[in-house]
């Protein structure tokens, strides 16, 4: 029996199983000061930002997820149409397949369907620098999909649990130092669900990268996903144990903001509504990125993907209104208090 393609098996598990840990992201423990006298008309609220020289209607990016199979290509197309219609950014999933099998290129060619996406990110695993990928390949991925920026993902835990994972993670720092300036576009490093810790952020500070994406604990857990995929009971148990391993997203955003004051920080990992997005921005993020809920919406239909994105923007706008923020720059300066005996969201 042919093995289900790895990307399709990831998609199926993420769409059908419990693979996230909402509540572990740390946002519920933070609270805005509600302002009943915001001295602001709702119509004045402007969610727009500039990121990497591109104008976004809201500080939102559809996170790196997919590409490489017909199903993935259709999901990318739907996500791309939603990103274009809402004027937000979008990231491609790992483009490694584009290098291995050029016939998959069309599944990443989202600009064919949605040429107006304001900001498009490419993606490949940083560990692939130890498996034959170099500056030439990265440039080919950027140019091949028309990307404005590029993510290297850092996923040691996922690779450790994944059957046959690529686990040679030594020697990546000098390779990143060499390859990043040759990518031709701004490069960011991202986790995939275990967060960027203080230790990692300190290492990243010495690299010529433009920014980071946190992908902290609280959202999709790749240890959990891989534990569901593996047939090996020992690996399955290990994946279960590490399912919530890492830095909660709210903490990771604060850490990255402090450790990397002059770089872009994108918050991700369990951001599930506009209030959590607003909290991530108030912690210092420049933008937020969302994966799983948008994937599930896009799997239902292109219309649902658009609706989910519009809802997120609307919730963010409302959070800005009731905290008296005319602009995202103002929101980023709003203090957050530790929530104690509050049960209401917010
Ligand atoms: C189906 C799926 C596929 C993903 N594939 C990639 C990938 O190829 N490269 C990557 O950097 N991150 C990948 N991610 C991780 C996301 O970009 C994101 O970091 C993580 O899911 C946390 O966000 P969330 O809690 O909103 O899902 C994937 C996530 C999902 C749900």
Automatic annotation (TrEMBL):
TM region(s), chain numbering: none
The EC number(s) this enzyme carries: 5.3.3.2
Record-linked SUPFAM superfamilies: FMN-linked oxidoreductases
Cofactor: Mg(2+); NADPH; FMN
Residues binding substrate: 6-7, 94-96, 158
Top-level taxon of origin: Bacteria
Catalytic activity: isopentenyl diphosphate = dimethylallyl diphosphate
Enzyme class name: isomerase
Residue sites binding Mg(2+) per the record: 159
Keywords: Cytoplasm, Flavoprotein, FMN, Isomerase, Isoprene biosynthesis, Magnesium, Metal-binding, NADP
Pfam families: FMN_dh
Chain positions recorded as FMN binding sites: 64-66, 94, 123, 190, 215, 220, 270-272, 291-292
Residues annotated as domain FMN-dependent dehydrogenase: 176-332
Keyword Protein biosynthesis among UniProt keywords: no
Location of this chain's protein in the cell: Cytoplasm
PANTHER family recorded: ISOPENTENYL-DIPHOSPHATE DELTA-ISOMERASE (PTHR43665)
Function: Involved in the biosynthesis of isoprenoids. Catalyzes the 1,3-allylic rearrangement of the homoallylic substrate isopentenyl (IPP) to its allylic isomer, dimethylallyl diphosphate (DMAPP).
NCBIfam families named in the record: IPP_isom_2
Membership in a protein family: Belongs to the IPP isomerase type 2 family.
Subunit record text: Homooctamer. Dimer of tetramers.
Name by which UniProt lists this protein: Isopentenyl-diphosphate delta-isomerase
Source organism: Anaeromyxobacter paludicola
């Amino acid at each position: 029996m042919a093995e289900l393609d790895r990307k399709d098996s990831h998609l199926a598990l993420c769409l059908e199983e419990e693979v996230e840990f909402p509540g572990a992201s740390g946002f519920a423990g933070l609270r805005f000061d509600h302002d009943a006298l915001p001295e602001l008309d709702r119509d004045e609220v402007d969610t727009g930002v500039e990121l990497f020289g591109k104008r976004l209607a809201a500080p939102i990016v559809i996170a790196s997820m997919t590409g490489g199979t017909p199903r993935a290509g259709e999901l990318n197309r739907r996500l791309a149409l939603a990103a274009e219609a809402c004027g937000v950014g979008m990231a491609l999933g790992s483009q490694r397949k584009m290098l291995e099998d050029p016939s998959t290129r069309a599944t990443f060619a989202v600009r064919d369907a949605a040429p107006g996406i304001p900001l498009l990110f490419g993606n490949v695993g940083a560990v692939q620098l130890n498996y034959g990928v170099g500056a030439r390949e990265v440039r080919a991925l950027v140019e091949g999909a028309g990307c404005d920026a590029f993510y290297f993902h850092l996923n040691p835990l996922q690779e450790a649990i994944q059957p046959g994972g690529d686990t040679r993670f030594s020697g990546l720092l000098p390779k990143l130092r060499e390859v990043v300036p040759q990518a031709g576009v701004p490069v960011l490093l991202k986790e995939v669900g275990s967060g960027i810790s203080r230790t990692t952020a300190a290492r990243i500070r010495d690299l010529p990268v433009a920014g980071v994406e946190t992908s902290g604990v609280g959202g999709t857990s790749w240890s959990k996903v891989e534990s569901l995929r593996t047939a090996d009971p020992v690996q399955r148990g290990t994946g279960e144990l590490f399912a919530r391993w890492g830095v909660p997203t709210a903490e990771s955003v604060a850490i990255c903001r402090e450790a990397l004051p002059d770089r872009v920080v994108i918050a991700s990992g369990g951001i599930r509504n506009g209030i959590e997005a607003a909290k991530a921005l108030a912690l210092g993020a420049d933008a937020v990125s969302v994966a799983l809920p948008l994937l599930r919406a896009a799997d239902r239909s292109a219309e649902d993907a658009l609706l989910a994105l519009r809802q997120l923007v609307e919730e963010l706008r409302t959070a800005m209104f009731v905290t008296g923020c005319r602009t995202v720059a103002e929101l980023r300066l709003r203090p957050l208090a530790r929530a104690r005996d509050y049960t209401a969201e917010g």
